[in-house]
């Protein structure tokens, strides 16, 4: 197995681990704000891993790369807002 295959395999394993961690977190019944924070971080980390290693968006200045990075900032921010508003409503 060459280094490229090893890297892709390790990234895939990291994505699987983050996904399983998210599923476990959802079952634990932790406080909403803490759960929202961790889920937002997991979404951002997974998004950046996918952009960097699977979408081929490594070149600087790519519009699609910028849009995708913005997406993975906006979505976690919305998760935090949703978690914060549900905490305030409780």
TrEMBL record:
Transmembrane annotation, as ranges: 33-55, 67-89
Q: Which Pfam families match?
A: COX4_pro
Statement: the UniProt record of this protein carries the keyword Cell membrane: yes
What start and end residues bound the annotated signal peptide? none
| Compartments where found | Cell membrane
Q: Which UniProt keywords apply?
A: Cell membrane, Membrane, Transmembrane, Transmembrane helix
For this UniProt entry, what is the primary localization, expressed as one broad class?
membrane
Membrane topology per the entry is: Multi-pass membrane protein
Against InterPro entries, the record matches this protein to: Cyt_c_oxidase_su4_prok
Q: State the GO CC annotations.
A: plasma membrane
Protein name in the entry: Cytochrome c oxidase subunit IV
| Species the sequence originates in | Zoogloea ramigera
């Amino acid at each position: 197995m060459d280094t490229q295959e090893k890297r892709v395999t390790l990234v895939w394993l990291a994505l699987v681990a983050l996904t399983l961690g998210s599923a476990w977190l959802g079952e634990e019944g932790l406080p909403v704000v803490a759960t929202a924070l961790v889920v937002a971080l997991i979404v951002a980390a997974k998004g950046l891993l996918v952009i960097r290693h699977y979408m081929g968006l490594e070149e600087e200045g790519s519009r699609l790369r910028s849009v995708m990075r913005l997406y993975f900032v906006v979505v976690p921010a919305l998760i935090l807002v949703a978690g914060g508003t549900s905490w305030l409503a409780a």
